[in-house]
Design goal:
The protein is mainly beta. The protein is built from 1 helix and 7 strands; from the N terminus they run αβββββββ. Strands 1, 2, 3, 4, 5, 6 and 7 form a 7-stranded antiparallel sheet that branches. A hairpin with a 2-residue loop joins strand 4 and strand 5.
């Protein structure tokens, strides 16, 4: 057993909208991530997706309206629900879900690969 420093793990990420597995329990993975800008709209047909904000602010756009999340706040997006996470400034968060990922890119935008930055507004 080892404790995990979520802030340090998230700070070590080199790509926005990337995930790093930091723990597993009961068939679920605990993954830190950081985001800025927007992902693409996507859905996970076979799993719920849980967001727990560590720092910054994360908006999870849903077709029924936006949900604003601040540090310490959690949202579970039910399986099959189309969503689009957005961070106007850098946000760091924990994702919790089963050890299988149904959407390979998870909505990750092309610009974020290889440490890219979001397009200028």
């Amino acid at each position: 057993m080892a404790k995990v420093d979520l802030a340090a793990e998230a700070a070590g990420l080199t790509e926005f909208w990337s995930q790093r597995v930091v723990a597993s329990a009961n068939g679920d993975l605990f993954k830190v991530a950081k985001g800025v800008g927007s992902t693409t709209w996507h859905t996970h047909e076979d799993q719920d997706e849980t967001f727990l904000v560590l720092s910054g602010r994360l908006t999870v756009q849903l077709r029924t309206g936006d949900v604003e999340l601040l540090p310490g706040e959690l949202l579970v997006v039910p399986r099959g629900t189309e969503h689009c996470p957005v961070a106007h400034e850098e946000a760091r968060f924990l994702l919790v879900g089963p050890a299988v990922t149904s959407t390979a890119a998870g909505g990750k935008p092309d610009w974020s690969r290889d440490g890219g930055s979001p397009p200028a507004r």
